[in-house]
Give the backbone structure.
Amino acid sequence: MLDPLSEKYNEDDLIHLAALNQYLYCPRRCALIHIEQLWEENLFTAEGRIMHDKVDTADKESRGKIRIEYGVPMRSLRLGLIGKADVVEFHKRDDGTWIPFPVEYKRGKPKIDNCDKVQLCAQAICLEEMLNIEIREGALFYGQTRRREDVAFDKALRAETEEAAKKVHELIESGITPKAEYSKKCKKCSLLNLCLPKVSGKASKYLLAVMEDE
């Protein structure tokens, strides 16, 4: 719960920053994971987990003016987030200071929406709060395209990230799982067999119709 005096969340109320990505992809999926504690792996999540495991177990590196750290833990009490970055590159400036550059690894390809960018921006906000420094950009690496996509943390993306964090906290605090709404993206969701969006959606409509008739 948000502390009205400090406008910061308590340690016990921190949520995993990946929940922002899950919420923007599908609020019901986010609720099934974080409220009902449900999880089931499929090919896509398995490939993603393997990619992340490889990154998390890598040794730190130094390449000239770039120092690379893997599996960096982070948190933001202001947004109520906790988690870790796959990779944080520290770029050395001419004045000798080191600027963090978070890099998030994804198994697929760039998405139409901003769910991946919001997750990366959340990492940057965590690092900014922890290190008292401004981070202007980071990158997303996609396994399917084998390319990095630079992401600028502008005002619009930061606002979207903060709003997503707020919405996820509200969702989890409510304890209510949103009703199912089937769409094309359901086919790739690892929780498809637990969510049953087609069945749940029809059942909800039927019950509402019965209530209206009565």
Q: What stands out?
A: The chain has two domains: 2-178, 180-214. Residues 155-174 form the longest helix (20 residues). The radius of gyration is 19 Å. The mean pLDDT is 84.
